[in-house]
């Protein structure tokens, strides 16, 4: 299953609902293009909902890191929401779990943006 | 009689990466590994194949990736060979180092070592060969590098 993304706005925060696989190729490009388009539109508060992402490889991890640093470098914030166990475990072993701001409640996550 | 060896010669394409992962999933499942171990094996094979296709063969259509699976009573042994210029292990950065945490690449070999019980990487006659071993009743989450 390839990656699918849709976006919605909640109280000034763009929620990026993602599903499928974030892997080398199409999945990584889809995420990259979405974040780039949001930044181009001035939307710098981004909450990436990974609740339906069941697989991510090292390229996908790299894309998440790239998105995180790109948004931060433009003065924005990117946070992660609803990690599946597989994605959670991958971020743990790569020591990225503490780098990302990871949330498990959407309403609280939206409120947490400055 | 159950077949215990599977060999594939694959093109240097992204489709090969998916095909290798699917083969690993099927073979590991058939050998009786649990769901988490199957995922680990499949991801290790995926990452090794990505290295072979991208960094080894550099998508060169004239170069192939060889993928072998061997099932024994105690192990699943997977060998992936490319026809690239070779991999300098000494130059691989530590992805867990503070300076490298926010790098966007360089985690493939680390994930392979994390998921497999044994990992051997060495030059082959034509490029790089990586051998991955998962013990049938293995409990180790961290792969051990085997010196040559």
Supply the key terms.
heterodimer; A: about 110 residues; alpha/beta; 4 helices; 5 strands; B: alpha+beta; Heat Shock Protein 90; 3 helices; globular
Can you walk through the features of this model?
The complex is a heterodimer of chains A (114) and B (148). Chain A is of the alpha/beta class and 114 residues long. Chain A has one domain: STAS domain (Transcription Regulator spoIIAA), CATH 3.30.750. Chain A contains 4 helices and 5 strands; from the N terminus they run E-E-H-E-H-E-H-E-H. A 5-stranded mixed sheet of chain A has the order 1-2-3-4-5, sandwiched between helices. The termini of chain A are far apart. The relative contact order of chain A is 0.19. Helix content of chain B is 32%, strand content 26%. Chain B is globular and about 45 Å long. With 148 residues, chain B is an alpha+beta fold. Chain B has a 6-stranded mixed sheet, covered by helices on one side. Chain B has 3 helices and 6 strands. Chain B has one domain: Heat Shock Protein 90 (2-Layer Sandwich). Chains A and B meet through helix 2 and helix 3 of A and helix 2 and helix 3 of B.
From N to C, what is the helix and strand string of chain B?
EHHEEHEEE
Level-2 CATH architecture of chain B: 2-Layer Sandwich
Main sheet of chain B, how many strands, which sense, barrel? 6 strands, mixed
What is the tally of beta strands of chain B?
A: 6
The CATH fourth-level homologous superfamily of chain A: STAS domain
CATH superfamily of chain B, by name, is Histidine kinase-like ATPase, C-terminal domain
